[in-house]
Amino acid sequence: MPITQIDTRTEDLTLTIVAEFPVPLAQLWDAYADPRKIERFWGPPEYPATFTRHDMVAGGRSHYYMTGPDGDTPGGYWEFVAVDAPHSFEVRDGFADAEGNPNTELPSMRMVFSFEETADGSRLTTTTHFNSEEELSQLLEMGMLEGTKAAMGQIDTVLADLESFAAGRATEAQLLSDTRVRVSRVIRGDVEQVWRAHHEAALLQRWQLGPDGWTMPVCEPPAEVGGTYRFEWESDDGENRFGFTGEVLESQPPHREVTTERMVGGDQVANGVNDEQWTSVVNEMTLTPVSGGTLLSLLITYPSQEVRDAILATGMTNGMEDSYARLEREVLSPA
Question: Residue ranges of the Activator of Hsp90 ATPase homologue 1/2-like C-terminal domain (predicted)?
Answer without folding.
Answer: 23-159, 191-329
